[in-house]
Amino acid sequence: MNDASLATWLEEHPAAIFGACDDKGAVVEMPATIVLPPGSHIDGRSTLELVIAEDYRTVIDAFVAALTEGFSSATIHMASDPDTAVGLRYLDLRAEHGVILRVVMAIDREDDATPREIDPAALSPRRPRIGSMTKDENAVIISVDIAASLMLGWSEEEMVGHSNLEFIHPDDYLKAIDNWMARLGDDEGPVAHTVRLRYRCKDGTWLWLETSNQFQSQSDGTKLAVAQLVNVSEEMEAVELLRESRERFHTLVSSSSDVIALVNDKGELLYANPAGEQMFGYDASEEIGRSLLELIHPGDREATAAAFSMTLGTPGVHSHYIFRIRGSTGEWRTIEAIATNCTDDPAVAGVVLNARDITERKRTERLSALGELATVVGHELRNPLGAAINGLFLARGELGQISDEAERYLSGVERAVNRAVRLSEDLTAYMREREPDFSDVDFADLVADVLQTTPPPEGVEVHIDSSERIKVDPCLMTQVLTNLITNAYQAMPDGGIVSLAATCDPTPRITVQDSGSGFDSDLAHRLFDPFFTTKIEGTGLGLAIVQRLVEVQGASVSIENAAGGGAKLSIAFPRTRGS
């Protein structure tokens, strides 16, 4: 296809999704030489990542067809909208642009999914399928019949007197010689030895011929070999195409960012693509034969097992699962999976799982819900809580001297109201959208300001080890340090030391460390989750707010148990943030 024809063809497909791949199906960068129409866009994912699992075979067949015919068309369903059919086109542009072009578009005409017809005039004339030749014991050709001559394109005169090896592909020399020598020394009678070899045609092409050499002893003690030649090129091409298709399918599956796995009817792993190891940290080869139910969260195990049993009951059925699975480091990841029962397919004989990690999506959904809750709390509870606080203050003034028991009741009410106020303030702080306003500040001065409003309790010492200036948002960092220092105080009820430091070598970093008892390392992956707390009266938003305010400033936060005891929290800034 020339550039003008390609441009016209592309203009007929506005607002399409384009992609480029090599002849193995692996995604490559779109060449600058292909000018896409306005409104279209490039998707860097493989086609298998875009479609539902049921259309994998359709995608692969269409890709293979494009390699052989130059163009292919199919109807598929996108994973983002499984109920809507869309058109898939593959266009082989390797000769012109070095890639195969993929086009996904809406179907708006009945002929959108019609494959291109092959021009009969482009088909090659058929060759004879069976021929024969005679060779002496040195494999020199003595005679060739007309069928073999037509098959290879050589006349009998052009072949007679030449060694058979002159017409055989160099890569097949050893195979041809081994077969010939083994049969030449065989005295068991007229038994044909068969071998498949590539023979050179006169036009420079190669034919796969199945050669059966049958030796006959002559009266002078020599031997002649009558070779029957059967053209098996189509079969061998089909075998090669199947091999390439398998390799291509393996490449497509291996390069998918989704987990593609195969389990038996007991839920035991038979295969998993590399995405499984990247997602969960397990080496698939070491997990073969292990039941996946062992990795599923105990709270999800029973329901998942029941759903899997229902899937097994109907061959060909597709089932949707959502469950939590433990990664190699102990964290729980939320997984969405589509299970396809292929137990009745001898080539598969199992259940195919197509799974992706939706932990972040679930977290985003949860945060969105929290945002709505924070709005409700801010507007609906702030005024009543303020009225309750004022009412308690006035009640104390009116009651004057009260009994110890009444004081205990009033104090309990005050604590409950104040805790509700803190929760309301924490929720508002967590969900508030802020743009950072960076400036150079002295870290020691910043900590000193925080300590003015958050002084250490009795028995707690605060050590500041820094003379650095750091570029941060002072307001946001004040809130961060307030939360961290408060957490450190609470981690040392019997007193201890809080150490704060700021360094800029090699990158800007702030550390806050206490001398408490540290934390359970199995809970490390949950410490920044909203509402997760190990404290009796904690809101579970302190560290979540820290993480949010730190990330707003382009930094990252991590926590670990310090070597000398206690917890150590580190805030790492980009290298360019140093002062």
Strand tally is: 23
Q: What is the CA–CA distance across the termini?
A: 58 Å
Q: What characteristic shape results from the CA principal axes?
A: elongated
Major beta sheet summary: 6 strands, mixed
The residue ranges in which pLDDT falls below 50 over 5 or more consecutive positions are 109-126
Number of domains: 5
CATH-defined superfamily of the largest domain: Histidine kinase-like ATPase, C-terminal domain
CATH architectural type of the largest domain: 2-Layer Sandwich
Mean pLDDT comes to 81
Give the helix tally. 16
The third-level CATH topology of the largest domain is Heat Shock Protein 90
**Given the helix and strand composition, which structural class is it?**
alpha+beta
Explain what the structure shows.
The chain is an alpha+beta fold and 579 residues long. It folds into five domains: 3-122, 2-Layer Sandwich (Beta-Lactamase), CATH 3.30.450; 130-236, Beta-Lactamase; 262-357, PAS domain (Beta-Lactamase); 362-431; 439-577, Histidine kinase-like ATPase, C-terminal domain (Heat Shock Protein 90), CATH 3.30.565. 36% of the residues lie in helices and 27% in strands. The protein has 16 helices and 23 strands. The protein has helices spanning 3-11, 47-50, 56-69, 94-97, 146-152, 156-159, 173-184, 233-255, 274-280, 284-287, 298-312, 359-399, 404-431, 443-453, 474-490, 542-552; strands spanning 17-21, 27-28, 41-42, 71-78, 81-93, 99-106, 130-136, 141-144, 193-200, 206-217, 223-231, 259-263, 269-272, 318-326, 332-342, 350-357, 439-442, 460-465, 469-472, 496-503, 509-514, 556-561, 567-572. Strands 1, 2, 3, 4, 5 and 6 form a six-stranded mixed β-sheet that branches. A hairpin with a 5-residue loop joins strand 20 and strand 21. Helix 12 runs antiparallel to helix 13 (404-431) and helix 15 (474-490) runs antiparallel to helix 16 (542-552). The radius of gyration is 37 Å and the shape is elongated. The model is unreliable at 109-126 (pLDDT under 50).
